[in-house]
Design brief:
With 455 residues, the chain is mostly helical. It has helices at residues 3-34, 40-47, 51-58, 60-79, 82-100, 106-120, 123-134, 137-169, 185-194, 196-207, 234-265, 269-300, 306-326, 331-345, 351-359, 362-394, 401-422, 424-437, and strands spanning 175-177, 181-183.
């Protein structure tokens, strides 16, 4: 082995180590973000909050700050030290998740959820910017997909972890923890899932190095560039919006699924969480493997519009399955349709992120990804849980969550697919222009994918 080959192998190994660490932190982030969906009933009882307030904690309270704080943090990722940005923000969201176990009212919990949002806002754009400079062009899509897939494990595994914890605790009213004293089970869950953020912040600080940027930032441009609002890049930003409209279904369905099984079919909370998590992890992750593979094959056969067609196709196949799940006559039937819907829709959410890695210059990726997450958050995360509750009120209130989920899917599925297809031509021009400018013109479509920021 030559010295050059050995050095290249070490760089690749360092890159994959960073992907593993960043992906593990991404798992922690999703668990911290989504665990709230398994704690609805105890929070309602102890903090005296309503379904609408719960939906705001899942949606708007998180999404607004996650979106708008993400833009300047994404720009900092483009011009500053990304490693220390990740360390600092991980400490913020870990502290706020841990502190959520000490909340005494809706407003205290709301402020802590905002803190989680602010901390997590930097994770995706900063990590993807790092990955872009840790790998050569022909390996970036694969590395990106592995990172996002690890996040999806956190998204799907949060309910499994929470369900196992709830079942392990059992029906006890209080637990006695070292230093914390007597706490309620839901408080212990927040303490447990918040602590790992501190561990991975330390690992990143001690073992991950800041890589050299492939392209230097534009001189004297330190603020936001807003390139995502100008041609030709605006098409990719609109592609994020189209995807986010479809994700309204997923955020509503996954956010309320455990509660729906508890209320409608009288399942135990722990059992509902474990089964929802298993359905998402098996069928959802399987869909995440299939969707990018389909895009890869089509792209290899000259279909530059492959990501657009995969997204639209997944939405058109998935939204009837969401409706079927929402109106299913039993918990088992609900799970079957839920799993099928996850298979069709989850993998499609990665398409905009892949297009960014293919079509956006390195020195703009952090801000652009943050802008894409803004679109997803303000539409998908903000509207999904609350739109479900408001739609349920059309049919009579919280006892009609199923009908609310069906109505949201019937509107958002066709709307998102139609918008996606309208963007086909400008997206093809953007991707083909980047391919023509590339030297060498090599782009490897991913073999793994994930919803990541979008479940």
């Amino acid at each position: 082995m030559t010295a050059k080959t050995s050095d290249s192998a070490r760089k690749v190994a360092r890159g994959w180590y960073a992907v593993a660490v960043l992906g593990s932190l991404y798992i922690v982030a999703f668990v911290d973000r989504l665990i709230l969906g398994l704690l609805v009933e105890p929070l309602r009882a102890d903090l005296h909050i309503t379904d609408t307030q719960i939906s705001l904690l899942m949606g708007v309270a998180f999404a607004v700050f996650y979106s708008f704080v993400g833009l300047p943090l994404g720009r900092i990722a483009d011009v500053g030290n990304r490693k220390w940005l990740l360390v600092g923000t991980a400490l913020i969201w870990g502290s706020c998740t841990f502190g959520s176990g000490l909340a005494t009212s809706f407003w205290v919990l709301c402020l802590l959820r905002i803190g989680v949002a602010i901390g997590e806002a930097a994770l995706t754009p900063t990590s993807l910017s790092l990955i872009s400079d840790l790998f050569p062009p022909e390996r970036r899509a694969r590395a990106t997909s592995v990172f996002m897939s690890l996040g999806a494990l956190g998204a799907t595994g949060s309910y499994i972890l929470g369900g196992l914890v709830v079942n392990a605790i059992g029906n006890v009213d209080h637990l006695v923890l070292p230093l914390m004293g007597s706490v309620k089970p839901w408080q212990a869950v927040f303490f447990l899932v918040g602590a790992p953020a501190f561990l991975f912040a330390a690992i990143i600080a001690l073992t991950v190095k800041e890589p050299v940027r492939e392209t230097a930032p534009v001189p004297n441009v330190r603020g936001l560039t807003f390139a995502w609002l100008r041609r030709p890049y605006v098409a990719a930003f609109l592609f994020f919006i189209a995807t986010a409209i479809g994700q309204v279904m997923i955020y509503g369905l996954s956010g309320w699924a455990p509660t729906y099984l508890v209320r409608q079919f009288h399942w135990a909370t722990g059992d509902a969480g474990i089964r929802i998590g298993l359905a998402s992890m098996t069928m959802g992750v399987s869909g995440m493997l299939v969707a990018p593979r389909v895009a890869e094959v089509w792209r290899a056969h000259g279909r530059a519009d492959a990501p657009i067609l995969v997204l639209a196709g997944g939405l058109l196949l998935g939204f009837p399955l969401v409706i079927a799940a929402s109106l299913a006559p039993s918990g088992v039937a609900f799970l079957a349709f839920y799993a099928a819907a996850m298979f069709c829709i989850m993998g499609t959410g990665m398409m905009p992120f892949i297009c960014v890695q293919w079509g956006i210059p390195s020195h703009l990726k952090g801000e652009f990804l943050a802008a894409g997450l803004l679109a997803n958050s303000m539409v998908g995360i903000a509207l999904g849980p609350t739109a479900t509750v408001l739609a349920a009120k059309v049919f009579g209130g919280g006892a009609h969550l199923g009908q609310g989920l069906a109505l949201v899917a019937a509107i958002c599925g066709p709307l998102a697919a139609g918008f996606t297809l309208l963007l086909r031509r400008p997206m093809v021009r953007l991707l083909q222009a980047e391919d023509a400018a590339a030297d060498p013109p090599v782009r490897e479509a991913p073999t793994l994918s994930a919803v990541g920021e979008l479940v």
